[in-house]
UniProtKB/TrEMBL annotation:
Residues 67-214 form the Hedgehog/Intein (Hint) domain. InterPro entries: Hedgehog/Intein_dom, Hint_dom_sf. It comes from Ruegeria halocynthiae. This is Hint domain-containing protein. SUPFAM superfamilies: Hedgehog/intein (Hint) domain.
């Protein structure tokens, strides 16, 4: 039985990643570029699920595709809440408007948030206490990854986007009491998911975005690294295939972009 083209492509991409890394420009400093192992599940066009493992740079753009939700986070689906680690490509998730979207891609990575990398950077998690944003929002205490974005606008950012809600990094909500930074010294498994169109889904009673690299992604990454990055996503061919952002998204205190 011939191997489906999409499955063959996924396997080939996983192998090509190491070759592309060898071709990527070497850092000019004496520090070695840190690499990380990324686990990927993708829904193929024939309905099969491809599971691949990739070794790729531990750069923010790569890590952000995997570092949104911790193990045990409950995602709303038409059949009820489902733990993020049990969700598979092909399953449906409920979106903000009550419709459902099929998960096309799920990524996971294991890292130690409290351990500094070669650049002295850590990856803090965020603990959100129960009822912080209202009754059952979240339903119980929840811990998110550094790449998670909430639908909401903290007080210090209300001057942006004319005070309208936007997708905001969880770190912007830190208040030292109900939303706090945490740096576990032990390994933590983190996840993210991608659907056909950028969406807002309900996780542990809160509204989070699905993965999207952002409209500035093309300018944030070199051509050689772009090939490595795209190899992580067997369901797309180019960065444009992620489609438009659902709504304005904040980053580093400013609006990344407005939807057309």
């Amino acid at each position: 039985m011939p191997i489906p083209n999409s499955l063959a492509r996924a396997a080939r991409n996983a192998i090509e990643t190491s070759a592309l890394l060898r071709q990527a420009p070497r850092p000019t400093t004496t520090q070695k570029a840190q690499l990380r192992r990324y686990e990927v599940c993708t829904l193929l066009k024939n309905g099969d699920i491809s599971q691949t493992r990739h070794i790729a740079p531990a750069l923010p753009m790569f890590e952000d595709a995997f570092c949104a939700f911790t193990r045990g986070s409950l995602v709303d689906t038409p059949q009820g809440p489902m733990a993020i680690e049990d969700l598979l490509p092909g399953d449906d998730v409920l979106t903000q408007d009550g419709s459902s979207e099929t998960v096309l891609w799920k990524g996971s990575v294991t890292l130690i948030p409290g351990r500094e990398d070669t650049r002295g950077r850590t990856r803090p998690l965020t603990r959100i206490m129960a009822d912080t944003f209202g009754m059952q929002k979240p339903m119980s205490g929840v811990i998110t990854g550094p790449a998670a974005r909430l639908l909401g606008t903290p007080a210090h950012m209300r001057h942006l986007n004319d005070g309208q809600p936007m997708l905001t990094p969880v770190s912007e909500f830190h208040d030292g009491t109900s939303v706090i930074e945490t740096l576990p010294p032990t390994p933590v498994e983190l996840f993210h998911i991608c659907v056909a169109r950028h969406s807002v889904i309900r996780v542990d009673g809160l509204q989070f975005e699905t993965y999207h690299p952002g409209v500035n992604a093309v300018r944030m990454i070199s051509h050689s690294l772009r090939s490595i990055y795209l190899n992580l996503f067997a369901h797309i061919e180019s960065l444009n295939d992620f489609g438009p952002l659902l709504m304005p998204r904040a980053g580093d205190g400013e609006i990344d972009a407005l939807t057309a």
